[in-house]
Amino acid sequence: MLSNIGIPGLIIVLVLALIIFGPSKLPEIGRAFGTTLKEFKKSTRELVSDEQPEDKKKELL
């Protein structure tokens, strides 16, 4: 999906974000997005690791 945007489209999106949110808010938004993504990855890893032992137990039965 993002591969269809290209470099010019990405630059336009970044310029629009700079205009809408301003230079002081962009670092805060970036940090919040990074933290959210980090928590999401952590949660998915925990879900996958929790499900693996159950799958192995079922295979043994």
Automatic annotation (TrEMBL):
It holds the Pfam family TatA_B_E. It is found in: Cell membrane. It is a single-pass membrane protein. Keywords: Cell membrane, Membrane, Protein transport, Translocation, Transmembrane, Transmembrane helix, Transport. The chain crosses the membrane at residues 6-23. GO terms for molecular function: protein transmembrane transporter activity. Its main location: membrane. Gene3D superfamilies: 1.20.5.3310. GO terms for cellular component: TAT protein transport complex. One of its GO terms (biological process) is protein transport by the Tat complex. It comes from the Bacteria. Belongs to the TatA/E family. Part of the twin-arginine translocation (Tat) system that transports large folded proteins containing a characteristic twin-arginine motif in their signal peptide across membranes. TatA could form the protein-conducting channel of the Tat system. Forms a complex with TatC. This is Sec-independent protein translocase protein TatA. The gene is tatA.
